[in-house]
Amino acid sequence: MNKTTVSATLISTTDPVNADDLAHLCGVQRDWVIRVVEVGILQPMQNTDISQWQFVSQDIARALEARRLEHLLNTNLDAVAMLMELSQEIRRLKSLLQTHGLPY
Question: What is this structure's pTM?
């Protein structure tokens, strides 16, 4: 019988995390988090000194998605940012069409 081990990290939906914690959760270095902010994928709650940056659970999910896309597509974060922005715009437009009863 094969055994599969799964590890998980409990993430609070109310307590923000700092840049180092976000890097750890994503399995990357702090520089990656800085780059994700630079390309606009994430926007920290306090847009000041990096040591003051804080991210909420939605940011964590977005960062994990960016990391997944970067790895899956073997591309850079600029391309990932554009892809995520276009995907969000498509969802917004589909919702707008649905609101007006139009097919998409």
Answer: 0.80
